[in-house]
């Protein structure tokens, strides 16, 4: 046991760099978490909205969604008709190819 009151404390270099890095990282992470918590807490205070204003906003949102839904349905309908037309063209082409193959098959059998 060293009884000398003026003995030197261990040098900061005696603490491994890895332990210092872990400690600083833990402190920084804790400080960032506290900062984020305080930001959310401050941002969570919202204004009170009257019932009339809320109802008006709900109605405008509902009308906008309805308009968007109608536009999407119109686009789907147009795409559906285009696909049906393309399918009809392909069916006609396949029928013509089948008829051509049938004639070719009849000629090669003779």
What does the secondary structure layout of this molecule look like, with pairings?
Elements: H1 17-43, H2 51-109
Helix-strand makeup class: mainly alpha
How large is the count of helical segments? 2
The fraction of residues assigned to DSSP E strands is under 5%
Count of the separate structural domains? 1
Helix-residue proportion = over 70%
Q: Can you write the helix and strand succession as a string?
A: HH
Distance between the termini: 117 Å
Mean pLDDT: 86
* Oligomer designation: single chain
Summarize the main sheet. none
Radius of gyration: 39 Å
Total beta strands: 0
Could you say which overall geometry the principal axes of the C-alpha atoms support? elongated
| Low-pLDDT windows of residues | none
What features would you highlight for this structure?
mainly alpha, 110 residues, single chain, elongated
Question: What does this molecule look like?
Answer:
With 110 residues, the protein is mainly alpha-helical. It has one domain. It is 78% helix and 0% strand. It contains two helices and no strands. It has helices at 17-43, 51-109. It is elongated and about 120 Å long.
Short description:
The protein is mainly α and 110 residues long.
């Amino acid at each position: 046991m060293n009884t000398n009151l003026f003995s030197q404390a261990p040098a900061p270099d005696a603490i491994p760099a890895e332990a210092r890095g872990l400690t600083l990282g833990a402190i920084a992470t804790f400080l960032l978490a506290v900062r984020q918590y305080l930001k959310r807490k401050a941002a969570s205070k919202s204004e009170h909205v009257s019932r009339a204003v809320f109802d008006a906003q709900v109605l405008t949102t509902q009308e906008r969604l309805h308009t968007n839904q109608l536009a999407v349905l119109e686009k789907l309908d147009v795409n559906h008709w285009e696909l049906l037309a393309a399918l009809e063209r392909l069916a006609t082409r396949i029928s013509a190819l089948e008829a051509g193959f049938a004639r070719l098959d009849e000629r090669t059998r003779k």
